[in-house]
Amino acid sequence: MPELLSRRRLDQPRNQSRFTLNIDPDSFGRFTERIARFLGTGKYLFWQTLIVIIWIVLNLTALSLQWDPYPFILLNLAFSTQAAYAAPLILLAQNRQDDRDRVSLEEDRNRAAQTKADTEYLAREIAALRIAVGEVATRDYLRGELDKLREDLNPKPKKAKQNRAESATPTGT
Q1: Is pTM beyond 0.70 here?
Q2: Residue 7 has pLDDT above 60, yes or no
Q3: Could you tell me the CA-to-CA distances from 169 to 28, 160, 162, 163, 173 in Å, in that order?
């Protein structure tokens, strides 16, 4: 059995001898979006209409320059080619926009869920504080209790004068 040549070894990957075109999908997508945005502007429509009018006028009037006679087959071919490229470019731009919208929507959902969780937590905390405040003595309650205590510690002045008068007069002789 003849030995394999070094370039034909099966245990090692082949060298890429073919021409490969490396295209960054993101930069290509941005480029196609710019084209799709331009295709939808009035500026583009103006220039395209102007070119078509010039094309038709030159082909109808200039007998020596008639490169595309009356049925304007070349012009139709140009429009078909343009449409063949414009439609996929517009679809690609729409798909990229849908992807961005999907990511944005997911972020909005996450943010809304976090806001809802924060709101529910704060509602629970406020409810707990209301319960705790209900068990704590309020200022009015403390004033009332201090007033009662003061009354208990300081007898009324009328009773004190009567008690002093009774104690000052001797009883019995």
Answers
A1: no
A2: no
A3: 117, 15, 11, 10, 11
